[in-house]
């Protein structure tokens, strides 16, 4: 029989093996990130995918502290959308047109499959998925809301300034950026996921955004207590 502490240690070892395999597959893709990430999705090494929209996203949207854009005339974007659960949630909960973006074709296939099961045709019409590169989008001021969960930690820290510039380019004045920092773990020099702390978002976003929400989520998936931090930014 495995003790509670033993179970935790086994889980920790499993996560380490899973992370090492993910890093190996991404490196095997070389300079082509699309190949590397698609290999990860094909191998189903996606520990960030909890099989549902994220509880912390639901919390910040539904508690009502921030008046997020609502209605079919508003647009939301989820870069690195994966299986698409959060895209579906935003389209359903806020009534917006929601677009999911991912460079991995396998992830996009799964997201499209998920959306196809929705019973509400009106919601389906407000959802789209694209296999495009976030950094190559040329859609200035197109979005009222962007949600980043694990996309920030999937890219090299050397690209974080470019990430901030693109967020400022894509979000219209007065629009919102939701950032869920995860995983908050001891420092490591390799990734993904790359080392992250809540204050790592400050410099890339600079003066283009003001932080309007900064909290530790009360709702979280099992095993993630203390490993995530929610922030909301408004484009100035």
UniProtKB/TrEMBL annotation:
It holds the Pfam family TPMT. Gene3D superfamilies: Vaccinia Virus protein VP39 (3.40.50.150). GO terms for biological process: methylation. GO terms for molecular function: S-adenosylmethionine-dependent methyltransferase activity. Keywords: Methyltransferase, Phosphoprotein, S-adenosyl-L-methionine, Transferase. The keyword Transferase applies. The keyword Transcription does not apply. This is Methyltransferase domain-containing protein. It comes from Amanita thiersii Skay4041.
